[in-house]
Amino acid sequence: MLKLPTKPNPTSLKSSTVDTSDENTTKSQKSVIVKLENVRKTYANGAVGLRDVNIEVYKGDFKFITGHSGSGKSTLLKLLYGAEQATDGDVIVNGFNLNGLKGNNLAMLRRKIGIVFQDYKLVPRRTVSENIAFVLMAQGYTYKEIQRRVQPALKMVGLMHKADCFPEELSGGEQQRTSIARAIVNTPPLVLADEPTGNLDPDNAWQVIKILKKLNSFGVTVLLTTHDEQLVRAANHPVLHLQNGYIV
Ligand SMILES: Nc1ncnc2c1ncn2[C@@H]1O[C@H](COP(=O)(O)OP(=O)(O)O)[C@@H](O)[C@H]1O
Ligand SMILES: [Mg+2]
After folding, report:
1. Ligand 1 pocket, residue 43 CB under 6 Å
2. pTM score, two decimals?
3. Which of 40, 135, 170, 243 has the most other CB atoms within 10 Å of its CB?
4. Tens digit of pLDDT for each residue in 11-20?
């Protein structure tokens, strides 16, 4: 089993949580990181996920995606990380057109996207550190690099003291913060969070938002779905509202 040190790593949090190759671009000009053009998604059973969606998201944006259950929020994010393919139109993420993107190219794109789910999706028999380190191991990072990255990610989400705990030993909020650390440990420029606060009480939900806000202040683009209007108001970021598959 992988043993990771619990000693803080001196590497600055900022340099380890931002894809610095994108940082200058963010500052000097607003470039598009996500673009949907005339996107329609119809599922095999005829259900419509999205009808005719046009969106541009700029590097460094933090946007909420709101709408009732069934309005297409998850569909939109799934198109962005390639879990579903658009029926029509173009989906462009970080310079990749997802139309027909497969195999290595899709894997390469996914390395540039951190994904957070409502139900955390942690591996039960692995510790917090191991859950976070897995991403890096799968991507062929060296042991040394893994050690260098896991600690700042844990620190970012305030879980240094839980590094050796198993998911079942954590509260829901702590599990979600672990999943955020896992999402950002390879410093993606884009984080997609699908109802990340859906299973949390208001205090824990706000902690999650604060972490994502902090990441965003370092230049990470964040797209977050929720139907919690109070949270949206409190967080004070622009909103894309979906209704029946349309942006309204
Ligand atoms: N895998 C799927 N197969 C068939 N229909 C689906 C699938 N996923 C979502 N849908 C349908 O697409 C519409 C949008 O769903 P979804 O994007 O999950 O909405 P939201 O996340 O806003 O609740 C709904 O009508 C839903 O039933
Ligand atoms: Mg959903």
Report:
1. yes
2. 0.90
3. 135
4. 333 444 444 4
